[in-house]
Specification:
Number of strands: 11
Structural class: mainly beta
Pfam family, one: MliC
Organism: Devosia lucknowensis
Shape: globular
CATH superfamily: C-type lysozyme inhibitor
Radius of gyration: 15 Å
CATH architecture: Beta Barrel
Order of helices and strands: EEEEEEEEEEE
Strand order of the largest sheet: 4-5-6-7-8-9-10-11
Keywords: Lipoprotein, Membrane, Palmitate, Signal
Protein name: Membrane-bound inhibitor of C-type lysozyme
CATH topology: Lipocalin
Distance between the termini: 37 Å
InterPro entries: MliC, MliC_sf
Largest sheet: 8 strands, antiparallel, barrel
Strand content: over 45%
Length: 143
């Protein structure tokens, strides 16, 4: 079993804070590193994730319909699957939730749902028929 401690670093005024991963057992070099930007104070949080296999981290850039760009981090550590999504100047850690298709992540009042390169960000406290906060398309790096 792979075990990794993920250090979430938050530094005042930093768009992306410094982060590190401390390995307790053997883990691949691609083990998760997940920065989180804090709104007004310095803080750090260490989360230990045990995985039945390798821990994978990827970053996917998105272009949204309103012109904003998002960079979403995904951490896959079976059975834990996380997305770190920037919302209102803060990076929110979201966990997977049941979905009929695609990958659905929830954290606090927010839902990030991806399917075939398309993604939506919703505020679950709004009416069910409310427009998404963001509708985005993954940016492919392949020519």
């Amino acid at each position: 079993m792979t075990k990794a401690k993920i250090l979430f670093g938050a530094v005042l005024g930093a768009a992306l804070a410094t982060s590190a991963v401390a390995q307790e057992d053997v883990a691949p070099p691609s083990a998760a590193v997940a920065p989180v930007a804090g709104p007004s104070t310095s803080a750090s949080l260490v989360i230990t994730i045990e995985s039945a296999g390798d821990i994978e981290r990827s970053v996917t850039p998105y272009q949204c319909d309103d012109g904003q760009s998002l960079s979403v981090q995904y951490i896959n550590a079976v059975p834990n699957f996380l997305a770190i999504v920037p919302v209102d100047g803060q990076n929110l850690v979201m966990a997977t939730a049941l979905s009929a298709s695609g990958a659905r992540y929830v954290g606090g009042p927010y839902e990030w749902w991806t399917h075939q390169g398309e993604a939506t960000l919703r505020d679950l406290t709004q009416d069910e028929d409310a427009e998404p906060l963001a509708t985005c398309t993954a940016i492919s790096n392949t020519p």
